[in-house]
Amino acid sequence: MAPAAPASPAAAKPDAPAGQTVQITGGRQSDSDARRQSTAAKIVIGREEIDKFGDATVGEVLRRLPGVTTPGAPGRGGSPRLRGLGSGFTQILLDGQRIAPGFSLDSLTPEQIERIEILRAPTAETGARAIAGTINIIMREGFRRRLNDLRVGTGFENGQFSPGLNWTHNDSAGDLTYNISGAAFRGHRKNSGRTLTNVSDATSGALLEDRSSRFDSEDKRYGTNLSGRLQWRLNQSGDSISLMPSVFHTEGHGDNQFSLVQRLRRPTTPALYNDGNSVSDARFTVGRLGLMWRQRVGDVRMEMNGNAGLWRAQNDSLRSEFTRDAAQAVTRTNVYADNSRSREQSGSLNVKGTLVVGGDAKTPGSEQSLVGGAEIEAVKRTETRTALINGAPTLADFGDNLQASSLRLAAYGQDEWTINPNWSAYAGLRWEGITTRGDAGGLAAGEKRPSNRSSVWTPLAHAVWKPDPKSRNQVRFSLTRSYRSPPLNSLIARPSINRDYPVSGSNREISPDSVGNPQLKPELASGIDVAFERYLEGGGVLSANLFRRNITDLIRGQTTLQTVSYSTSQRWVRRQENIGDAVTQGVELDAKFRLNQLFKDAPAVELRTNLSFFNSQVGAVPGPDNRLDQQAKATANFGGDYRFRGTPLTLGGNVNWVPGYTTRVESDQTVTVDRKQVWDLYALWTFNPSTALRLLSSNLAPQGFDTVSVDNTVLATGTERTTVRSGGPSYTNWQLRLELKL
Prior knowledge:
By secondary structure, the protein is mainly β. The chain has helices at residues 31-37, 47-51, 58-62, and strands at residues 42-45, 68-69, 81-82, 90-94, 97-98, 113-119, 133-139, 147-157, 160-173, 176-201, 207-233, 240-264, 275-297, 300-324, 330-357, 368-389, 392-393, 401-420, 423-437, 451-465, 473-484, 513-515, 523-535, 541-552, 555-562, 571-578, 582-594, 606-618, 634-643, 649-658, 661-666, 669-673, 676-688, 691-698, 705-715, 718-728, 733-741. The chain has one domain (31-741): TonB-dependent receptor, beta-barrel domain (Maltoporin, Chain A), CATH 2.40.170.
């Protein structure tokens, strides 16, 4: 990517009166300038933008950004996704390094973040595991100004309080600059939901089964995190050593009460429970240590990054089901105990060299930047799981200790240069070789774990064309290859049994067992991006981006009837498979400006808006609606804020909209998701430069959120249609926070 242009200091006037002090000032490159000067398409969201709403979590910041969607009910989004694509298509980096599986971005607080970069197309340096794009979260760096910020507040949702505390401290001591950020929080949520299931004859419409269930749950979550960046300046040439430790720890406890009513049941369907309860406890800890060394060797700027990480997860659940007879006598029928311990270790080492050649001192940015690097990353996952039904193990033949591992090697080179005042270009080539080892479970003595080796060449080309070098308009072009590797947990082939259908018999297509696949191959994608950008006087940008990705070896879950080793009956089993080709395409529009830039006498309201449309087709699934999993058809945001003149009050708001959509998952199965519309408002009262009070309302107009799946199963007796509607209400979240600069 294009190097950031240094801020130009103001020069002293030659005719300045004698004795007058002339102050030479410089400033950090603005977010718009960083976006404009990057040859690869990049959106930059800096501290000012992150601070505007005063969000409690990083997820709340991300869901308002261009092209970003989050799954789940309104106000309860999950991991952020670009271009509407499902899990795994978006590369999420923390300081340029991939985050650990299981790590939640909600463990971070916005106060810990320096900026967020969204790269719509991959580059050789950031990596090509980014079919949808990359979200790179840069933690706050040390700078020589002293900073000591404290934010104390609480959230309130559905009758429950969730207090939290965030602290950020920055200072310097001689050649050392450091930044320390910490947070502690307690989350408390109550949820409810229901599921309606009916089975009918697809031809006659006759109802064959009818049942409904509901649940009420209470979840408590506690967490702490601490991260730091310590940077030692070695000399005046910019050589430095940085140490970046971080620790995140969360614990959760859940209580769930549920009930089931089977109004109509066929003899082939088991008589299920009437009532039940479950208790779950979870702990997750991740530690990361990064070391960065920057040293100039001759004309080459060398950089070495080493990272070591370890995360551990512990999950314990106990589920009890009860039945009632005609006299309402209660009998405990089934007890499910599930205990798992997961551990993942990772280590990586990246070495990069940058050589800047040529250039004209009178033309900033005219240099040619040559970058080359190599990477190695090793990851090992170990999982121990014990699953019991009424005290007896369910899958003793597969063993309790399973593991998967991956070794990734990469090398890349890139060349970025300004051809002339109208054109700048980027060319890169990246090679990655990946060796993965899964686990089939139940291996015989001396039998090796299944292994899969693959390598990917990813040529990358970007260009920026300025029709008039003096204007603020430019056009971007990108031709890239990218890929998506299967997560390690999908390579572990230990079955997970559907609890409603014991292994002593068969199950149904809509209630399959699940199993991993050690032989999964990476998905590959060839892509093109074209964007037009107009940068406004006084800041602001208008942008339109078109994209297309052609995907091969698409990974998707497939449900088939199989003969299995753990049951004497055939069972329906769902596993991830490489099923063929797919294509996705879309248009992304975004704008950021002040209202008085359009209308001279209008108030200086800061407006931020974006609108994206997405479409996709999966070749192995017949249409219509043969879309990629969980890809929304569109997403939009409209927001703004305004500080009232002569008062300490700032008001702002945003509305996020995602339309409902239907996806044909398999030829006989569709999933329909409801529309989402989330209103956010905030008010900030600034008492003085060091004290402010913020009130934030998220999901101000809560609405229910349903998902409907329809499955047609062809049997010898005819076709059965199973319809499952599940969902529940959403809630408004209020937050009140005192912000102090100490």
